[in-house]
Amino acid sequence: MPPETDDSTDPSSLVADVLTGSEVDTDRVPTLLGFLDVGDRQVRLGSAAALCVVADEHPDIVGYLAGRLADRADGETGLAAALALDYLAALDPDTVADELEGDDARPTYGVERSAPTREGQSNRDIGRTRLAGTGSDYGPRQVYTDDGEENGDSDAGGGGGEDSDSDAGRTIGQRPPANDAEWFSLVTYESRFDDFTILSPRDRGRYGDSYRTLGMADDEEYAVSLRLLRSDAASSFVEALRSQLRTWTSVSDAENVVSVYDWNTAPLPWLAAEYADETLAERSRFPPPEAAWQAEQLASALATLHERGVVHAGIDAQAVAYYGNVLTEDDRQPPMLDSVGLLHVYRQYADPSNFLDPRYAAPEYYERRFGRIDHATDIYQLGAVCYRLFTGRPPYTGSFAAVRDAVIDGPPPTPSDVADVPTAVDDIVGKAMATQKLRRYETAAHVAQELRALREPQENDAK
Q1: Is the bond into 352 cis (omega within 30 degrees of 0)?
Q2: What is the value of pTM for the model shown?
Q3: pLDDT tens digits, 353-371
Q4: Which of 323, 301, 283 minimizes the C-alpha distance to 382?
Q5: Cβ-count burial of 95 within 10 angstroms (0-12 exposed, 13-18 middle, 19+ buried)?
Q6: d(Cα 115, Cα 284) in Å, to the nearest integer?
Q7: What is the DSSP letter of 237?
């Protein structure tokens, strides 16, 4: 099939004009479609992203684009077209399904007719660094109910437990029908980085697949965790994720918070964050003075988030990250809060136990009568992480039902029952993990103050 363009058109200039322009005309569609057939992979990927921008601006051409993309998706150069087709399927599943069903020879790419249709969108920024996506309303699914039936009697660790080998969160979305090389080329094209070098195989995590990479930007090297996030067909999911990624980025300059270098939501969500080698779930118990210092660092970071109006919502042992790049095992590694606020988005579309270890979850995650997910929820989960730091184990064990009942009906766990710790640790953990919100610390800064008061005498005694 010959390219639908003329030889005088410069591909890079036209693609850049569409991706950065404030107005996008449909008369450029034939040319962009033609670029999908050229030999230069960067041109094909750029054209695919530009077509996504045009579709956002002009939803009425989604059906036409779906047909043209499907014609190209099974050829030698079809991976870029397949990526753009996936994006259209997320924007308007019914229209794309209708178009693809009209030709039995065309692949359906997993489009489900029952998926919600796309409604109006605003603030189009697809293809630009950091700001991208569409938005509409779609009713979220409540997964933690008063009777707890939807979660069943699964293992308390769930998909997000410390020692779980399950493929957490795979109920949301699937990987695009493209290989890693194509994805990295697309991300490189869209991101502020000039290039990425993959340093290790893919690691499947809670929110998506991550890769340890070396990112180059303006001749500087960055240790980057490149994450391909799980997605949902609902346009409201993309809008909510876009908002939360923007929020995380706005606070990633805070000390002890994982930094976000760049992100986008088109054609599927990804983010580039500073690389961390391990999590608290992979570490052993800390001596009490070190545990107090670690807990104080996390409490201070959480206080900064709250001062800026940000609720993390998903703090547990896997959400506490460490660089891991130390010369000796005795070197002090500061903890960092990871995945800031992502649970706000994902828990509305999938079982939250895939993204938050239930052994660290506050009572309000189990029953609505305990209130909303807010700053007090973070304080509870900070207390649960403190328990892990001082004892080397989660605050609860057993089946999901057993953990749920203990969280709702029982007193907070006592660290000194399982480890040799100062009695003050029991008081701090007990108050932070109080069942009723009004009995918890008012602020994370108060938790940091008490941890500091606990730590300093211990460190002085050790000298």
Answers
A1: no
A2: 0.66
A3: 889 999 999 999 999 899 9
A4: 301
A5: buried
A6: 44
A7: H
